[in-house]
């Protein structure tokens, strides 16, 4: 079966930037799984997956616009320390999680004060040209429930109420 809209794709990847490996799904042994064609994947990576089949191995290089976007210098915001999750003591360069109306976001600490921290809201990989080395493990039809919810369900359901 080939990767097409509404198929569930399972794949391993190694992500690099300028010959420096950033992360790999092989590290924890678990492949990534997503529902193709439902905006759950980087647009450039999803486009490269289209038409591929289980067992295919390929590499794709994405410009920032196809990955995490260009870096925007004005994306620095002062956030109260009580809203930062992930550590008790904050230092510049650390990453934190914040909850917003749009969901969870990762931010990078730029400067820390007594009650607030200046945080860079850009994705850590914004502005970078990224290369994904991909190995497709499996492709299957999505279930009716997965299509209705717009995401893949692990064995036993998705864990949210309907």
UniProtKB/TrEMBL annotation:
Main EC class the enzyme belongs to: isomerase
Claim: Isomerase is one of the keywords in the record: yes
UniProt-listed SUPFAM superfamilies: FKBP-like
EC number, as in UniProt: 5.2.1.8
Family to which the UniProt record says this protein belongs: Belongs to the FKBP-type PPIase family.
Chaperone listed as a keyword: yes
Catalyzed reactions: [protein]-peptidylproline (omega=180) = [protein]-peptidylproline (omega=0)
Entry protein name: Peptidyl-prolyl cis-trans isomerase
Compartment annotation: Cytoplasm
